[in-house]
Structure formats: structure tokens, C-alpha cells
Write a structure and sequence with these properties.
By secondary structure, this protein is α/β, with parallel strands linked by helices.
Length: 354
């Protein structure tokens, strides 16, 4: 992992959230909403300004994550993916560099000294690494081309051909173990491909959602064909996307895995406010596991605070499990978040349920 040269202070970790909106407003007003840039956005077509503004908002959230976890790799990785996307819609790189430099200038003048120094450290490193970042962004096309995927299955999914996709995937899938093995060998690489192709502006959000919903339906229909081998309930399991999360494919499959192995599940699925979730936990009888999904790095701080509260309230009695692509740049998530289990494959979850 690439750490910041100088560790952010505790003050910065605790105060950056207070200044995020201030930074967004300033950059939007003084850079994006200028005649010069609106002329650029107008030439590039409808929605271009919105793409850059969404980039800015998420970028500042990632800045907070990078400061909180003392992890420069988090923001560097986001910039690689973002620049590959923005470049494909015609945004020139000097706009991104100007945003970096303006954040430094504004922080120096308007934010508390300690915080401004930590922000300056991060953005000076981004500027210093910018050539490497843009080079990595330019390679995303090759990364997508070189992914080892089932092209036929991929094309059926993004074209909306449910029956053909189902037939291809479920061939020789007879039990939960063979389903998980094939899902990880076939579907996981395809999901990576879909994500990169969206990032490169080669497929629409509609096609992305269509493919994911088909995969969800294939999984649901497969599990419906299985006979539950368990005759007793082993306890209750709460599954949820943390606040700010809406990706539910993997958590729905994990829900089916727990059900198949004899657990009563409470699948909250979509984003749940932290306070509401903490209250709900106390109402679940015989609660044994709580499983969290986090796919966005911008939500890691939310999860860190939520998990700490849950463990404090429940005196370490409930077993907590977490996973998702949001943890990819965190070295040893189990230790950092004080989890009982961290899983990056469905097979690991299946082993826990046994």
C-alpha cells in the first residue's frame, strides 16, 4: 500500500467532514461554473457538467477516506478510474489538475492550518503522481480487453438475453458448491468487465443494471431449485448494505447461502441509515451473525463508526462479517475494522455457514 509521506493528524481525521461541502461549493462556483468551462461542457454535450460535478463530489468523499485511513492509494485508485471515464467523454486533463491546485490554494487560505497542511500533502503527491495516474488510466482499455471472461455469456447479459445467459451459466451446476465455484470463475470477472466498460463509457448505466439484474434472477431461480438440507434453525443472520450503498447482488446471494444452510435471515438489502440499523439489531431474536457489504470506498468511514458502535453495544457477542470491493485498498480489513471475519469470496462465506 502507498501511504502518505506524512500521516494525517487526528484533527484532520475528525474535521475534514465539516469542510467537504465548503470545498465542493468553492470548486464548483470558481471553476466548473465559469463561462470558460461552460463553453467546454456545451461543446461536449448534454450531461458533461453533471459528470464532472459528480466526480468532484465523490472525489472529496474519497479525500476524507484517504485522510481517515492514512491511505493515499485510495484516492490514487479513484483518480485512475475517474480520469479514464472523464477522458472518454472529452474532459481535458488540465481541468482535473486545476481542481487539485485550487483545492490546495483554497485550503491554505480558508481551512484550519493543520488540516490545510494535510490536504496540501495529499494533493502535492497527486500532482507529482499525475503522469503515472494518467498513464494507468490510459491502460484501462487494455485491462478490459485482457480480462479472461466468457464472451458469449457477457454478450447475453448486456443484451438482456436472460434465457440464454441462464442456460450458459447453469450448465453443469448441480449444487451450491458448483454454483459458487462457477460464479467466482465466470460471473465475477464479467462483473469486473462491466464495471470497466462503464468506466470507459462503452456501455450505459442501463446495460450495467440490466446485466446485474439478470445475474440476480439467475441466482434466485437456482437457489429456489435446491432443497434445504437443514431441519433446524441455527440462529439469525442480519445482512445489509451500509448507509450509502445500493449494490445488492452479492448480498442477495449470500442471503440464499445462509438460508440454504439452516439460518433465518433478515436481508435489509439496500442502504440503511446507521441509527436505524443499530435500533433494528436489538429486535432480532437469536442473532448470531451480521454481514455487511461495502462496495464504495467513500462509505468506509460510515462503516467504521457503525461497526464500532455495534461491537460496543453488543459486547462482542455478535459475530460480524464484511466484504466488498470498497475494502480493496485497505491492508488487512479484519484488523483495521476489528471484524470477526473479512471475506473476499463467496466460498469463504460458505465455509463460515458450515
Amino acid at each position: 500500500m502507498i501511504q502518505n509521506k506524512k500521516k494525517p493528524t487526528d484533527y484532520s481525521k475528525n474535521s475534514i467532514s465539516k469542510y467537504k461541502n465548503e470545498l465542493i461549493f468553492h470548486i464548483d462556483f470558481h471553476i466548473l461554473n465559469t463561462d470558460y468551462h461552460h463553453t467546454i461542457f456545451k461543446k461536449l454535450g448534454h450531461g458533461t457538467y453533471g459528470k464532472v460535478y459528480e466526480y468532484l463530489k465523490y472525489h472529496v468523499n474519497i479525500l476524507e477516506t484517504a485522510i481517515f485511513f492514512e491511505n493515499f492509494e485510495t484516492i490514487k485508485d479513484y483518480e485512475i478510474k475517474s480520469i479514464s471515464h472523464l477522458s472518454k467523454v472529452g474532459i481535458e486533463l488540465h481541468i482535473i489538475l486545476r481542481i487539485y491546485k485550487e483545492i490546495i490554494a483554497y485550503s491554505n487560505e480558508h481551512l484550519p492550518l493543520v488540516l490545510s497542511k494535510d490536504i496540501k500533502n495529499i494533493y502535492e503527491k497527486l500532482i507529482e503522481s499525475f503522469d503515472d495516474i494518467t498513464e494507468e488510466a490510459s491502460k484501462r482499455v487494455e485491462v478490459s480487453k485482457n480480462l479472461d471472461i466468457d464472451d458469449e455469456l457477457y454478450n447475453k447479459l448486456i443484451s438482456g438475453d436472460y434465457e440464454s445467459a441462464k442456460e450458459i451459466f447453469l450448465t453443469n451446476v448441480n449444487d451450491i458448491e458448483s454454483f459458487i465455484l462457477k460464479f467466482e470463475n465466470k460471473m465475477v470477472p464479467i462483473l469486473s468487465k462491466i464495471g470497466i466498460e462503464w468506466e470507459l463509457n462503452n456501455i450505459s448505466v442501463s446495460k450495467e443494471h440490466l446485466a446485474v439484474n439478470i445475474i440476480n434472477d439467475i441466482a434466485s431461480n437456482f437457489f429456489a431449485t435446491l432443497k434445504n438440507p437443514q431441519n433446524t434453525t441455527l440462529g439469525s443472520v442480519l445482512l445489509c448494505n451500509i448507509e450509502g450503498e445500493n449494490h445488492n447482488l452479492i448480498i442477495n446471494i449470500i442471503n440464499k447461502i445462509f438460508q440454504h444452510n439452516g439460518y433465518k435471515t433478515y436481508n435489509l438489502n439496500s442502504s440503511i441509515p446507521n441509527d436505524d440499523l443499530e435500533d433494528f439489531i436489538s429486535t432480532i431474536p437469536s442473532l448470531k451473525y451480521i454481514l455487511f457489504s461495502c462496495t464504495l470506498e467513500s462509505n468506509l468511514i460510515n462503516f467504521y463508526k457503525l461497526h464500532k458502535n455495534i461491537k460496543n453495544i453488543n459486547n462482542e457477542e455478535i459475530i460480524t462479517i464484511a466484504g466488498g470491493s470498497g475494502f480493496n485498498n485497505i491492508y488487512n480489513p479484519r484488523r483495521v475494522f476489528n471484524l470477526d471475519f473479512y471475506c473476499n469470496t463467496l466460498k469463504q462465506v460458505l465455509d463460515i455457514t458450515k
